[in-house]
């Protein structure tokens, strides 16, 4: 299955990133939750140190564009095949930088993609 890094992961059940980690894991995907606060979601620790990872298929964003610049280098260093910009995370600057590195970008909702089977 597709290794997915969830940027903006939260242990708050009301957050979409929380729901996405649970649904990705239930769907059999390897999930790495990364956020700014320590915690746990779906039995996985939330990584706060921006871990080095390989073979990343997807980065799914749950961080608003105003808070993304500090994540750019990390996201691009993962060399994902694609970046999903969930609603409210759209960012032309990051999209441009990703496309320059041949990383596919999508404006989509991870939860919807999983629920309709086109993740």
UniProtKB/TrEMBL annotation:
Domain CoA-binding: 2-114
Pfam families given in the database record: CoA_binding_2
InterPro entries: CoA-bd, NAD(P)-bd_dom_sf
Organism superkingdom: Bacteria
Protein name: CoA-binding protein
């Amino acid at each position: 299955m597709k290794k997915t890094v969830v940027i903006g992961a939260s242990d708050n059940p009301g957050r979409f990133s929380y729901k996405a980690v649970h649904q990705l894991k239930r769907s059999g995907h390897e999930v790495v939750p990364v956020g700014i606060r320590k915690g746990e979601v779906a039995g996985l620790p939330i990584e706060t140190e921006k871990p080095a990872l390989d073979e990343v298929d997807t980065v799914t964003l749950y961080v608003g564009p105003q808070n993304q610049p500090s994540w750019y280098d990390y996201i691009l260093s993962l060399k994902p095949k694609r970046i999903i910009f969930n609603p409210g995370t759209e960012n032309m600057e990051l999209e441009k930088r990703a496309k320059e590195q041949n990383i596919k970008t999508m404006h989509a909702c991870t939860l919807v993609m999983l629920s309709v089977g086109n993740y």
